[in-house]
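Please predict the structure of the following assembly.
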Amino acid sequence: MDIASVAEVRRPECIGRHVCIRGWIRSRRDSKGGFSFLEVNDGSCFGNIQVIADGQLPNYESEVKQLTAGCSVSVEGTVKESGGKGQATEIAATAIVVHGWADPEGYPLQKKQHSFEKLREWAHLRPRTNTFGAMARVRNCITRSIHQFFQEQGFLYVHTPIITASDCEGAGAMFKVTTFDLDRIPKQADSVDYSQDFFDRPAYLTVSGQLNAEIFACALGKVYTFGPTFRAENSNTSRHLSEFWMIEPEMAFFDLNDNMDLAESFLKRIFRDALTQCPDDMQFFQERIDDTAISTLQKVVDSDFVRISYTEALEVMDRSRRTFEFPITWGSDLQSEHERFLTEEEFKAPVIVYDYPRSIKPFYMRVNDDERTVRAMDVLVPKVGEIIGGSQREERLEVLETRMAEQHLDPKGYWWYLDLRRFGTVPHSGFGLGLERVVQFVSGMANIRDVIPFPRAPGLAEF
Amino acid sequence: MDIASVAEVRRPECIGRHVCIRGWIRSRRDSKGGFSFLEVNDGSCFGNIQVIADGQLPNYESEVKQLTAGCSVSVEGTVKESGGKGQATEIAATAIVVHGWADPEGYPLQKKQHSFEKLREWAHLRPRTNTFGAMARVRNCITRSIHQFFQEQGFLYVHTPIITASDCEGAGAMFKVTTFDLDRIPKQADSVDYSQDFFDRPAYLTVSGQLNAEIFACALGKVYTFGPTFRAENSNTSRHLSEFWMIEPEMAFFDLNDNMDLAESFLKRIFRDALTQCPDDMQFFQERIDDTAISTLQKVVDSDFVRISYTEALEVMDRSRRTFEFPITWGSDLQSEHERFLTEEEFKAPVIVYDYPRSIKPFYMRVNDDERTVRAMDVLVPKVGEIIGGSQREERLEVLETRMAEQHLDPKGYWWYLDLRRFGTVPHSGFGLGLERVVQFVSGMANIRDVIPFPRAPGLAEF
């Protein structure tokens, strides 16, 4: 007996094989002819396999006719050409074993459509729905593409630390990590005695692996991180998570142009793979979630990304005579409305804006010869705005020290980061990409909590 | 001008090409003939490329002759056949650009060998050494193999949460996650008022993604997690980390035999890939770290894993008349000495021990018909003992509830885990593997802190 996946037995090549498939009932329909149609899904693909359960099966009356959505079964049978629409094959069952029932009185996922909000309360069951099954497969596909892209180009995957003693990057509010009994915090001279905590000092959850990734890039050339990062801001929005996965490549001897080239080919690769490797899931998102899901992706894949400096971008907006809610002047950061104007209206293509004002960007970005701007870049795409942020890093020790002083950062906390510039410093660049933003962009899902298996947000840590 | 990696230009096919390579000086040797040999490494492979720097280069006296270990350079030149030993090619330089100096007075990584302990204090520089360069490449190779293995077999990669409100699994001490000001913990009726904390309840760093992975396996079939996990035990040993990466596959419709088959083919695949894809790095580990590194791996790849029950294992040990420090009786757990006896002395092969006493194993393992044992399995390998632990999971609701009561667990905290058994329950299995244990096994490194980029342990959170 061949065990087969639903994805396999849906293919016409499978016709004639005697197989065993295992999965969950999506629906049952009884024919007047004394047999039943079962739709079975096993997660291997979007589609179900239709099973014909003959009335002669020994457990037909006692079990098969009791099957409801959510029950788990093994089905043995022969794969046949299907006369039905929308499917090439079906299985004529010779035996059906029921593993688990799903009492329709208690099982929450009945035929009725549930809101995404409701489904978040059932995060343990929502992967059984069409939407979240598709999401799991597309997210897996994107993740696989990311690894393949970097591995094919000789990047090393580096695990940067999750727990960190550096609170100093200023990227955002951080979660504290401790083994203290919160009921009895040890004090010394009225303040917390961290020498008694696990790490002998205050410890936090990382907001970025970049500085650590630079260590490896400055030793081994091309590396990337891909791990969870955290933000403790109290933001209860559809665009923020407290825990999310970030990809951060970092490349020695890359200048900002190399960085832009990499970011462009990287995004195109991910999107192309989603379109070609998950066609059924993407079709579903297109039909049910966002009717521009596929065309938007395809356009990004086919576009040349526009590249303009921040200063030019401001001139473009000025010439457009468009009224913005927040008018922009040189020296302030682009808001979402400006980003979307550039990519959706002005250029109708992905746009890379580079060379931002020095004053609005972090200390580690390389200062240009004009002294007013730094070698930052943001990649903007339709619908979401910024999807990638990156920069060439400041490799000159003295300039870096000046920038740290400018931003009131204590060089002591960065001794090792400065050492990278003291010993064999090299031009280098990198960028960061939030996985969930990408999955949101690909699927068209409105709320970021619906593109990660178990979202974390203020008040939300169930499951 | 072709930019090329050192890995590329070391290949004879590259002879005749005019290229630019970029990397760091490992050493310089001046010839009496008025030219110098530079050894340059860029991390793309274990070996260096030898560069011949002619005295006619315009910056020969001013710069080239000042180069020391750690300086960063770009070298343009032609790849030639090398007359030297141990290398097929070398580069005759036509131009050398120095990007960064590394003052030998201050640069810690001089020719002198440093202890691994010392290098841990310089975690920002140790990737520049032979050992830690090799480690980064082998760790990357293992990680890539893991993803490829599961992806090729249709598993979905699932990101399980890092921050969790379940403290209930009993797998080990947990770190607390909070945004409280530790100086002023809000109290209500004398105890901590968690309703004012970020997640409205106590929150922790995960010790395992298994229970969450079961959710996805019970919806979509075959899945795996691969992410950081945490232990807050105060263990200052060479075998424990506070933060480490774990791989946890979970498969619906797999019984314990399927689980053993998967674990065996999984380990063999990883080890085979390390041997074939990192031959130079493995050769280095063999020569410098553990002279059985390669043969041990090769033996595992070539072995059929022995499979015996816990009860049989005890009989084997009994018959052996071997004296153990901790004599074992039925019902107590195997110690490292027993595990190593079985795999190293008795069977001289990897051993899978299964069907452990119910009383020493977690509540979620499936109870056998004998009612005394559960469907647990441990995979034991020479030198390290247990490398994989797994089980078939208890899919029967009533048995699971009995087991939870036995272990004094409150079912309320597990409502969603129990729901998986209420609705469409299926037989399923999975296992867990610590990435660092695997890297330690492959490389032969004695201390687990040397196989992860930035180790975390009591008192250790620098970098």
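Chain B has twelve helices and 19 strands. The first strand of chain B starts at residue 2 and ends at 3.
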